[in-house]
């Protein structure tokens, strides 16, 4: 059981205050970087040593397969914390949101994306996963922001979603997670970027050449895409440069560029997505780095060739990759 002692000094000073009258859920605690709105109670809590999150820099869109995704985002990976708070009585979503928004700005967080009310579209499609069956998000009261803070030890990302419970809770709901109609609710997600312990590292041209010579293939984890999309993100530049360097140093080499996904979503959608992502890599190498198109061929195998179990977050992260196969 984690220690749920008195309030400590936090970066965002608005959060300090007396502990709420009702108990937080067992094992939960405030985050040392961003804490709760004064008088709130933690009703949902999740902490992971390593997780990947798409932090939005643009609004919600509907993808080709009818799913929701961010129009644009940054990929953050590292220590992950998700906290769902029930606000105190008499404090609406607007007041709670503003009391997070201002201290985040003062602390140096740079806002990536924010929205309020109707401008948020359908943000509730993926929120309140920490409180399923507890909260019914009110789209007429929802507010959201994502922000990041550069620190010496790595970038910290915050995703803040505030709404008010739309419906009365079901009968018999435990008091420690019960949220009455109209009560403000906060979901706070924090990602503190770090290198995964097992070390999925980027490889340079020399390492790619060695791997291909030994096994005919090499797996890359430095090529990034937004969820559900096939546009190569700017953060992929270093990996693309190394692929181009390899191909220019080995003029006879031809490569099959193979896209791989995890098992989230239908097979047909994943197979199509993996092919489109592989083609996007090929297009980038041809148009941006002058590699002849005849030396590259795109292929997509969806989740047909995993290198780890898709039952865990870490396994799915390993399965989302681009491979280069010599032919």
Shape: elongated
The secondary-structure element order is EEEEHEEEEHEHEHEHE
Structural class: alpha+beta
Percent of residues in beta strands?
25-35%
What is the total number of structural domains? 2
pLDDT average, as an integer? 82
- How many runs of DSSP E, i.e. beta strands? 12
Largest sheet: 6 strands, antiparallel
Low-confidence stretches: 1-21, 127-133, 196-201
Rounded to an integer in angstroms, the radius of gyration calculated over CA atoms is 22 Å
Number of helices: 5
Instruction: Tell me the helix content.
Output: 10-25%
Layout: helices, strands, pairs:
Blueprint (H helix, E strand, L loop, with lengths): L40 E16 L3 E3 L5 E3 L2 E14 L6 H14 L3 E7 L26 E7 L6 E9 L19 E10 L11 H11 L1 E4 L16 H13 L5 E6 L6 H23 L6 E5 L12 H7 L1 E6 L1
Parallel strand pairs: 10-11
Antiparallel strand pairs: 1-4, 2-3, 4-8, 5-6, 6-7, 7-8, 9-12, 10-12
Helix pairs in contact: 2-3, 3-4
Molecular structure report:
This protein has 2 domains: 13-193, no CATH class; 205-326, OmpA-like domain (60s Ribosomal Protein L30, Chain: A, 2-Layer Sandwich), CATH 3.30.1330. Helix 2 (205-215) packs across helix 3 (237-249) and helix 3 crosses helix 4. The strands form 3 sheets. Strands 1-4-8-7-6-5 form a 6-stranded antiparallel β-sheet. It has a 4-stranded mixed β-sheet with strand order 9-12-10-11. The protein has helices at 93-106, 205-215, 237-249, 267-289, 313-319; strands at 41-56, 60-62, 68-70, 73-86, 110-116, 143-149, 156-164, 184-193, 217-220, 255-260, 296-300, 321-326. It is 21% helix and 28% strand.
């Amino acid at each position: 059981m984690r220690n749920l002692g008195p309030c400590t000094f936090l970066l965002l000073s608005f959060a300090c205050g007396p502990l709420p009258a009702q108990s937080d859920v067992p094992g939960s605690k405030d985050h040392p970087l961003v804490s709760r709105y004064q008088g709130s109670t933690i009703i949902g809590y999740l902490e992971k040593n390593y997780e990947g999150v798409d932090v939005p820099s643009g609004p919600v869109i509907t993808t080709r397969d009818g799913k929701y995704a961010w129009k644009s985002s940054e990929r953050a990976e590292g220590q992950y914390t998700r906290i769902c708070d029930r606000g105190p009585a008499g404090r609406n979503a607007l007041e709670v949101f503003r009391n997070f928004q201002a201290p985040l700005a003062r602390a140096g967080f740079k806002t990536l994306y924010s929205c309020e009310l109707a401008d948020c579209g359908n943000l509730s499609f993926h929120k309140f996963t920490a409180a399923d069956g507890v909260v019914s998000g009110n789209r007429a009261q929802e507010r959201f922001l994502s922000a990041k803070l550069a620190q010496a030890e790595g970038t910290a990302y915050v995703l803040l979603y505030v709404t008010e419970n739309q419906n009365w809770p079901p009968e018999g709901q435990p008091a420690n997670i019960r949220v009455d109609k109209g009560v403000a609710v906060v979901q706070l997600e924090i990602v503190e970027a770090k290198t995964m312990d097992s070390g999925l590292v980027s490889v340079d041209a020399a390492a790619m050449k060695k791997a291909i010579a030994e096994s005919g293939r090499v797996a890359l984890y430095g090529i990034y895409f937004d969820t559900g999309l096939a546009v190569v993100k700017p953060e992929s530049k270093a990996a693309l440069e190394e692929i181009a360097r390899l191909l220019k140093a080995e003029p006879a080499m031809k490569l099959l560029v193979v896209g791989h996904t995890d098992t989230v979503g239908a097979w047909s959608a994943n197979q199509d997505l993996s092919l489109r992502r592989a083609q996007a890599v090929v297009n980038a190498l041809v148009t941006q780095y002058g590699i002849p198109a005849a030396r590259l061929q795109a292929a997509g195998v969806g989740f047909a060739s995993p290198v780890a179990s898709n039952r865990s977050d870490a396994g799915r992260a390993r399965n989302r990759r681009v491979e280069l196969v010599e032919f």
